[in-house]
Amino acid sequence: KRAKRPVGAPDKSLAKKVTKVGIIGAGLMASQFALLFVRRLKVPVLITDLDQARVDKGVAHIHEEIGKLEAKGRLDGDTANQLRGLVRGTTDKSEYADCDFVIEAVFEEVGVKQQVFAEIESVIAPDAILATNTSSLSVEEIGAKLSHPERLVGFHFFNPVAVMPLIEIVKTPATDEQTLSTAFVVAKGLGKNAVLTADAPGFVVNRLLAKVMGEAARAVYEGTPLLTVEKAFAPLGLPMTPFQLIDLVGWKVAAHVQDTMSAAFPDRFFSSENFHALAELPEVVEKDKHGKVTGWTKAAEKVLKGAVGS
Ligand code: 3HC
């Protein structure tokens, strides 16, 4: 017999009605959230970033994605215009005053996240919900400086946001029932399945993924050719190989997850130092003309496509 609600999920009747969503950050992940929120919840969405140029870029990206859906016939012209009208970019945080659900997708550093929440908390209502999309930082620590830590919850999306069906909802010892309930109702409204996880390093998904990405990296570090690792992964039947996955989430984010996991469990996860050292191997990464790492395996991927199954 199936449980009526996910294990640990609170009573949805406690949920707060969400009428306006705030997103902090206007980068790729944040823009994808904005699109999902306007498309699924049909509520006004505000996005913000450090400066107007970043905000404009984020809004332009969302408009572009709406345009693509329109071109594919997934949205009619009126709906597309209506969705564009729901997105607003601003650098003025006071505009967040009437948002009842604010999610951050800024740089993965506790201090940065604490800072943006402190700014937002000073303008929003005391019972507005705050959510963090952190992929592996402690949600409790992110909320440590809040006046109302009971309204903070982890709300962790996966790449690509539009497609991946899961959201990890992370509860801290302070998170109250209304916050948790609202998070579950919002996740459902977005068309996602939500699971409740403990506030432990990597939650659940990144705990598993850090093993996959870390062990693949360890094998290459220990001398196995990268393409061998990628081909050897095929029998597991996952949609992406470990290095394709690292490319998808981005090397920086993958390295950050590895840092968190190896710091928390040094004897169980591939050392982040060695993971970073892989970024120096030319057969593993592509670098731009300034020598900056732009991706793992992009160049190898073409070879891999031909190599798999051969
Ligand atoms: N953005 C939006 N939509 C996308 C997309 C993207 N980047 N990539 C693919 N899609 C959509 C396509 O439009 C298509 O939609 P449709 O069926 O409605 O036309 C659908 O996804 C399937 O795409 P394709 O047929 O082109 O390609 P695949 O069948 O190969 O699927 C994939 C692509 C869904 C990305 C699949 O490879 C996959 O599931 N990969 C694993 C991804 C994964 O594990 N993500 C988790 C990463 S970890 C993370 O994010 C956590 C962080 O904290 C580190």
TrEMBL record:
Domain (3-hydroxyacyl-CoA dehydrogenase C-terminal) ranges: 202-291
Taxonomy, superkingdom: Bacteria
Residue intervals of the 3-hydroxyacyl-CoA dehydrogenase NAD binding domain: 20-199
Protein family: Belongs to the 3-hydroxyacyl-CoA dehydrogenase family.
Protein name as catalogued: 3-hydroxyacyl-CoA dehydrogenase
Organism (species): Microbacterium caowuchunii
Source species taxonomy: Bacteria, Bacillati, Actinomycetota, Actinomycetes, Micrococcales
Residues of the full protein shown: 325 to 634 of 715
